[in-house]
Amino acid sequence: MREFGTETETVRPSPTFEGSGPSVVAVGGGHGLAQALRAITRYAGRITAVVTVADDGGSSGRLAPAFDIPPPGDIRQCLLALTPDDSVWRTLFDHRFTEGDVEGHSLGNLILAALTEGMGDFESALREAERLLGSIGSVVPASQSRLHLVATINGERVEGQVAIAMHRGTIRDLVVTPTDATAAPSALSAILGADQIILGPGSLYTSVLAALVVPGIVEAINSAPASLVYIANLITQDGETLGMDGADHLQAMLEITGVRPPSSIVANRAALAVDPPLESVVVEPAVVETYGVDVVFADVVERDAGWPSHDPARLGEVLGLLHSNELDQRGADS
């Protein structure tokens, strides 16, 4: 167990590298992955987001089946996280319509659908979107096709990302359909070439595990020489993780996906006030360390957010220091 931001180990500001930092791959989806990507921009030389393609709600849930494309919503969030704030294209991609036939749609989602139709495939559309936005990293879908999430909750089969997220109970199994789905080659290549792989934060089952259960993703992570870091959620989520502590999150991830235990878990040590039945995710070092996982405590909460969120600057400093420590350890062992 370690604590960052204390007298024994102080977080130092991490420089922004221009191609000279580590190659970092972040896996997951939603707001949590976007926050992680913003943190990673503080120290990485190369960034790749591997994003779940099982979202079936909102704008994504309407566009994906209509155009037979991976759901663009989580992918759009990740593109924006890697885009400079002063980009005009960023403003356009972030615009959401509030009326008319396009009510509820993000303009960025519509642009991605249009680019896919014009260029012939979704990943080519993403590369063009990255060029328009001036993104400082790459975003790739976990699979080249849209997938459907299926869970077993309290013995009941529950289908669909939205339904799973809202269904209270214990999730024992999580898979994607069609059953012959495979991971995107670009995702596998990025994982195998990474120096550091980040899992989380985000909805445990419908974001993080939804990406990991795509056939081939875990196999690549388990084969990769990169260090593996799990960022623990700040609070529980009603429906998915109600009543679960940090060890429960870790155990569910390991048992359902077969992914190797992470080398480190980044856990928040700042006080958080949340209304019941939600609660802070408590990570007990004595329990988590039985999995061979080091717990790193740090204050990683964004002060001005309206909802408990990870602060990209604080989190980036911790992740960068973890990578530096990993290099130092490798050097000492060689």
Describe the structure.
This protein has 334 residues and is α/β, with parallel strands linked by helices. The chain folds into two domains: 2-50 and 143-333, CofD-like domains (Rossmann fold), CATH 3.40.50; 53-141, no CATH class. It is 39% helix and 16% strand. The protein is built from 13 helices and eleven strands. It has helices at 30-40, 58-67, 73-81, 88-94, 107-119, 122-133, 161-166, 185-192, 204-212, 217-223, 246-257, 285-288, 312-333; strands at 2-3, 23-28, 46-51, 138-141, 148-153, 156-159, 171-177, 196-199, 227-231, 264-268, 294-298. The strands form two sheets. An eight-stranded parallel beta sheet has the order 1-11-10-9-8-2-3-4, with helices on both faces. A hairpin with a 2-residue loop joins strand 5 and strand 6. Helix 2 (58-67) packs parallel to helix 5, helix 8 runs parallel beside helix 10 and helix 9 packs parallel to helix 11 (246-257). Mean pLDDT is 92; it is low at 6-18.
CATH topology of the largest domain: Rossmann fold
Please report the total strand number as a whole number: 11
Helix share, percent: 25-40%
- How can the largest sheet be summarized? 8 strands, parallel
Q: What is the CATH level 1 assignment of the largest domain?
A: Alpha Beta
The geometry reads as globular
Question: Can you give the mean pLDDT?
Answer: 92
Strands in their spatial order, largest beta sheet: 1-11-10-9-8-2-3-4
Indicate the radius of gyration in whole angstroms. 19 Å
Structural class: alpha/beta
| Residue runs with pLDDT of under 50 for 5 or more positions | 6-18
